[in-house]
Each structure stands twice: as structure tokens, then as C-alpha cells.
Specification:
The protein has about 450 residues and is mainly alpha-helical. Helix content is about 75%, strand content about 0%. Helix 3 (about 45-70) packs across helix 16 (about 380-405) and helix 7 crosses helix 8 (about 165-195). It binds phenylalanine.
């Protein structure tokens, strides 16, 4: 019997915690997912609803998750059984672990694509457009049966490796270096993209709303799902990260910084991608390949494009890695406590199972493309839809209700560092009424989309 005798870990510093939470938030969601979901949902109108979701629902729930995690010092399921033993609130935790499995399963597939592109820039293969253009190359690659799965495997092995090493040395260290670098390169690319001739159209698409889109219930659901996905919210990733926080750190500041940074990354990514989309005559609603097709086009036009492509896909893969790590950590932390496994055993077993769960998502683009699950979507998109647009907001709803109604008010305010400040009252009001009602309305009005 190998009993787990390792003590629970803690972050080395407050900055380390904030950077790790930022590393979790900033990932494929900001660049790959944000660009194509924005493109498919009409641009500026979507962006406005998305920003409202972040402000009115996202930030308050980030705070709720941090508060739960730090108070409970346990994984996302354990946190609820500890703070509210014997109550159904634990459903949020269970939903969270399930979401970790589903999201990481397809996240690993897309992250594998970024690694393939990185290799393409390393060898020079992608410096100029391959025969048939980047679109053909992309579709050919992701629909082939074996190659993308190999890349998914490599990516998952890296993710497992970091979680295996542990919170402080694995997760905390990588984030400190890579995040600022990614921000710099994103700004350079956005600046360059604006010179390509599609700037006026691209910026209009992103910032001038088409008012008719506001009448579409599907746009609200997409914006809500994107807000949850991008902020790593509603599944206990931030509960888990908060649980490695020890002393009295100020939580509200941390929650605000994570949300602001994540949103900036997404908007700058939009400024990078949409001008190029119009400059190269691509349909903004062309779907999940948007970033993988337009970005190489930008690089091919740039002086030193090969070098920028290399750097960009390296950083994107790294950003994906720090997000994937937080997804795996949710499940691993649960298995460590629940089954008394060591961290090493839990990361390998859970990580490998998630890899297997992701294989059909990859195959669903090529050999299994006749299989559709939700509303005509292929397997990968269906996994994404179920987890991001349903499980995450549902988890967030339960978390908001728990902190708003299921926990003693004075205790919550103390645990959150808001104390008796007015902001604390506003926060609780949002968690009690605004966020739950908004999520419910969006759910109900879009039910026909499912
Ligand atoms: N927020 C991450 C991204 O934008 C994805 C993620 C979702 C990570 C949920 C953790 C939890 O890429």
C-alpha cells in the first residue's frame, strides 16, 4: 500500500499565485477560441456582450472561487464538502472535475496543432505558403488520422510532466517568464497587422456593432461561454489555485488583475487577427481554423516572418500549456485527496485517461467526421459546446448561489477580504441576484440552440 504522505503544497509568493492564475486564464481561449467565436457571432455586438459578461458575472465569480478555495484549502470537490458538509452544493465540484476531463481532452488536441505549427516554423516549412495555401495545409493536417494525435500526445506528456513536478516548481516558474514575452509579441503582431490594408474593415468588424445581432439568443450564450472559458471559470480551476494560497493575501486585487489581463490579451488578439482576415479576404465566420490560417498569412508577408512565426507559436503553445496545467491540476488535486494517490501517480493516470478521451475529438475532424453530437457540431466542437456553454456557466451559477446564499454572510465577507466595505455588498448582491438571473435567462432563451 503506497499511502500518500506528501503535505499539501502552497505558492511561494502572492505574485506567483497571481501569475499562475493569469497563466491559467490566458491560453488558446484568448487567441484561437476568441477569434473564431467572435467571427462566427458577428464581431462587435458579441464583444460588447462578452465584456458585460466579464464585468457582471466573471469578475464576481472569480472572487467567489478564490474565496472558496483559500478558505477551504482543498480541491474543488473537497472545498464544498468541507465548507458545507452534507449539502448538494458539492455538485459544482463534481461538475468541475467532469469539465476538466472534457475541456482538457479537446484542448490538448488544439494545443497539439500549435506545436505542429511551431515545428513547421522551426524547419522553415511554413515560412511561405505551402501548395494550396495555408488553409489547405491546415485542413489536411488536422483531418489526418495519426499525426494530430501524436502531437496531442506530446502536448499532454508535457502537461503531465509539469503537474507531476508540482505546484511551486512546475507551474509557478514557467509562467513568470513566458507571459510577458507573449504579451510583447502579441502587441508587435497587432501593430503589424494594422498595416496590412484590412485595418479599417477589421477594426469596424470588431468595434462597430451590428445591432441586429443583439436579438440573437445564441450570441449571448456564446459570449457567456467564452467569458467562462477564457477566465478559466466555473469549474474550480481558480478554487484549486486559491487553495494553495496560505496567508492573508488580498483577493479582490488579484481577481481584478486576472480579468483585466485576460481581456486585454483577447482584444489585442482580435486587433491582430481581424485586420488580417479582411486583408486576405477570409470569411470572419470561417470557424475554428481562423487563427491557424490567417496568422501564417501575416507571417508570410512580414520581414523576418519566419522568426516571428516561430516565436509566436512557441509562446502560444506555452500559454496553452499553462492553461492545460490548471485543467489537469483540478482533476489531479481531487484524485490525490479522494483516493490518497501520490501526485506522481495521479498526474500520470489522470493525464493519460484525458489524452484517451481526447482522441475521438481529433478523429472527429477527419476519419469520423460523419459523427455529429450537438446541433450538427463535430465531436471536438460538441465537447467544447457542452463544457464551455453549459457545464461552466452551470458550475458558475452554483458557485454564485453557494457564496451568495449558502454561506454565512459575515463569514463570506471576511474570507473574501472585502470585510465591511461597500464593494463587498455590491459583490454579494451580484452573486445573489444579478449573476444567477443573467445566467438563467441566457440559458432559457437559447435552449433551442442545444
Ligand atoms: N482559460 C483557458 C484559455 O483561455 C482555458 C481554461 C478553461 C483553463 C477552463 C482552465 C479552466 O485558454
Amino acid at each position: 500500500m503506497s499511502q500518500n504522505t506528501e503535505p499539501r503544497e502552497q505558492w511561494a509568493s502572492r505574485l506567483g499565485f497571481i501569475l499562475a492564475a493569469m497563466g491559467s486564464a490566458v491560453g488558446l481561449g484568448n487567441i484561437w477560441r476568441f477569434s473564431y467565436v467572435t467571427g462566427e457571432n458577428g464581431g462587435a455586438a458579441f464583444l460588447i456582450i462578452y465584456l458585460l459578461c466579464i464585468l457582471l458575472i466573471g469578475i464576481p465569480i472569480i472572487m467567489a472561487e478564490f474565496t472558496i478555495g483559500r478558505k477551504a484549502q482543498s480541491d474543488t470537490v473537497g472545498a464544498f464538502t468541507k465548507l458545507a458538509p452534507g449539502t448538494p452544493w458539492v455538485l459544482a465540484g463534481i461538475l468541475g472535475v467532469a469539465s476538466a476531463f472534457i475541456i482538457l481532452s479537446f484542448y490538448g488536441v488544439v494545443a497539439g496543432w500549435t506545436m505542429r505549427y511551431f515545428l513547421g516554423y522551426l524547419t522553415g516549412q511554413l515560412w511561405s505558403a505551402p501548395e494550396g495555401g495555408y488553409a489547405d495545409f491546415f485542413v489536411g493536417f488536422i483531418s489526418s488520422p495519426v499525426q494530430p494525435i501524436l502531437w496531442q500526445f506530446i502536448f499532454m506528456a508535457l502537461t503531465i510532466g509539469i503537474v507531476f513536478v508540482g505546484v511551486k516548481n512546475g507551474i509557478e516558474k514557467t509562467n513568470k517568464i513566458l507571459m510577458p514575452l507573449l504579451a510583447i509579441i502579441l502587441i508587435i503582431l497587432a501593430g503589424y497587422s494594422l498595416t496590412l490594408g484590412g485595418a479599417a474593415e477589421g477594426l469596424a468588424f470588431l468595434f462597430t456593432p451590428d445591432w441586429s445581432a443583439f436579438a440573437e439568443p445564441g450570441v449571448y450564450l456564446a459570449a457567456l461561454g467564452q467569458a467562462f472559458f477564457s477566465l478559466s471559470l466555473g469549474m474550480g480551476a481558480l478554487i484549486t489555485y486559491g487553495s494553495y494560497l496560505s496567508s492573508k493575501e488580498k483577493l479582490p486585487g488579484a481577481a481584478g488583475s486576472v480579468a483585466v489581463l485576460d481581456t486585454l490579451f483577447a482584444i489585442i488578439a482580435g486587433i491582430m487577427i481581424f485586420p488580417a482576415v479582411f486583408a486576405f479576404g477570409i470569411d470572419p465566420a470561417s470557424g475554428a481554423g481562423l487563427a491557424f490560417i490567417t496568422l501564417p498569412d501575416i507571417f508570410a508577408q512580414m520581414g523576418l516572418g519566419g522568426f516571428f512565426g516561430l516565436l509566436f507559436f512557441f509562446l502560444l503553445a506555452a500559454a496553452a500549456l499553462s492553461s492545460a496545467v490548471s485543467l489537469l491540476e483540478v482533476a489531479v488535486a481531487y484524485f490525490i485527496r479522494k483516493f490518497d494517490w501520490t501526485r506522481k501517480k495521479a498526474s500520470i493516470i489522470v493525464g493519460f485517461i484525458i489524452f484517451l478521451v481526447g482522441v475521438p475529438s481529433s478523429l472527429g475532424i477527419g476519419p469520423l467526421s460523419n459523427i455529429t453530437i450537438v446541433g450538427g457540431r463535430d465531436i471536438l466542437d460538441s465537447m467544447d459546446f457542452i463544457a464551455s456553454n453549459i457545464f461552466l456557466p452551470l458550475g458558475g451559477l452554483i458557485i454564485a448561489l453557494f457564496v451568495g446564499w449558502g454561506w454565512k454572510k459575515t463569514e463570506v465577507l471576511e474570507a473574501s477580504d472585502f470585510g465591511s466595505s461597500g464593494l463587498g455588498q455590491v459583490w454579494l448582491f451580484i452573486l445573489r441576484f444579478v449573476a444567477p438571473i443573467a445566467i438563467l435567462i441566457i440559458f432559457i432563451s437559447s435552449i433551442r440552440q442545444w
